[in-house]
């Protein structure tokens, strides 16, 4: 992480985050009565710094978007049901193909892509993230997750970017956002069937819009950090490769 030029990594981050920004434009075209009011409220609150510090612009956008979704009759309440999730133990089964074709690409993806995003986003926010501890936590978490057929544990770039940005409060107090997010994840895990059903209850365009708004300023900062340095040719190359979605030997384009 120290050897790679930071602008190169930020170009990769910009490429990964770009689809979230494009989702905003797509929402304007597909669902203007939901997307435009939500975007206007988000931008309106963002213009007033003092108000934005006490009331999150994205929270305002979420509330308006949900209200407009309900008013336009796009909430499918028939899918609403509350169920508790159940853990299912999966006994390990070892095979050389799984190790070579799955484990190695996943390792590269987590360490060199997802953790790299989180690391650079934190660096961009003037933090000094403990890279060794992050890697240990990802490894141990992935072992635990594997026993229940869950995804690898990693430092997610988008979520890290949202809770570490300046709007999250003073730098020394933003860790509180991490505790809140962790608590919400635990609650979401307990009610996982309901969370999954949420994709049917609310239109996908709404979820895409809100994610794009939440990462709007982060995407802007990623572009600035990527292309303001002396590596613009390499930055552009990395950015274009990232958005190409090319996969070679099961290793994704960002790596």
Task: Tell me about this structure.
By secondary structure, the protein is mainly α. The protein is 69% helix and 0% strand. α1 runs antiparallel to α11, α2 runs antiparallel to α4 and α8 packs across α9. The longest helix is centred in the middle third of the chain and has 29 residues. The two termini are 13 Å apart. The model has no long low-confidence stretch (mean pLDDT 84).
The protein's oligomeric status is single chain
Task: Return the string of H and E elements.
Answer: HHHHHHHHHHHH
The helicity comes to 55-70%
Work out the strand percent.
Answer: under 5%
Helix segment tally = 12
Radius of gyration: 20 Å
Secondary structure tally: strands? 0
Major sheet summary line: none
How would you state the average pLDDT, rounded?
84
The low-pLDDT segments are none
N-to-C CA distance: 13 Å
Based on helices, strands and strand pairing, what is the structural class? mainly alpha
Summed up:
It contains twelve helices and no strands.
Characteristics:
255 residues, mainly alpha, 69% helix, globular, 12 helices
Give the topology, please.
Elements: H1 6-30, H2 32-47, H3 49-54, H4 57-71, H5 96-124, H6 131-146, H7 157-164, H8 175-190, H9 192-201, H10 204-214, H11 216-227, H12 232-244
Helix pairs in contact: 1-2, 1-5, 1-10, 1-11, 1-12, 2-4, 2-10, 4-10, 5-6, 5-7, 8-9
